[in-house]
């Protein structure tokens, strides 16, 4: 369980620095842009859950999307590679279309977004703005951990993490 070290409020978001532990993902991979991530992600996640169950991997909540930008890539302009799927209990060898992805261990900046998924960019922007204002450099990947699904989109929760340098 991550431990809180420092917190600050940034507009509607509270950003904390925590120690993240690795989580394993039964992942399907795709390349997405800011414009198409909302269209590509739901069917990708649905397929990942289906294939994980079929492969006997015992998938569980939460679902995770792991963004892996390459050095110099600008997500808004270039897009980036993602791994998306359910959490699983440990490593596995590639099974068909699924690969085993893992979130990194280490210091992260984290915030929680409540509401519709199409507004998640605001949470990402809040973390990046907070990190810049507080002299914390982000390093490489970020990821989203989705809370339980509900039809009441105003109460959906998603934790957003950025690995710190």
Can you give a write-up of this model?
Strands 1-2-7-9-8-4-5-3-6 form a nine-stranded antiparallel beta sheet, with helices on one face. It has three helices and nine strands. The model is unreliable at 1-10 (pLDDT under 50). By secondary structure, it is an alpha+beta fold. The protein has one domain: Regulatory factor, effector binding domain (Multidrug-efflux Transporter 1 Regulator Bmrr, Chain A), CATH 3.20.80.10. The two termini are 20 Å apart. The longest helix is centred in the first third of the chain and has 18 residues, at 37-54. Helices cover 22% and strands 44% of the residues. A hairpin with a 2-residue loop joins strand 1 and strand 2 (13-20).
Summarize the entry for a quick read.
This protein is of the alpha+beta class and 165 residues long.
Assigned CATH superfamily: Regulatory factor, effector binding domain
State the distance separating the first and last CA atoms. Answer: 20 Å
CATH architecture descriptor: Alpha-Beta Barrel
Note the beta-strand portion. 35-45%
Number of alpha- plus pi-helical segments: 3
Mean model confidence by pLDDT: 88
The H-and-E topology, N to C, reads as: EEEHEHEEEHEE
Poorly predicted runs of 5 or more residues: 1-10
Q: Specify the structural class.
A: alpha+beta
Number of domains: 1
Global morphology: globular
Identify the quaternary structure here.
single chain
- Stated plainly, the CATH topology is called Multidrug-efflux Transporter 1 Regulator Bmrr, Chain A
| Overall CATH class | Alpha Beta
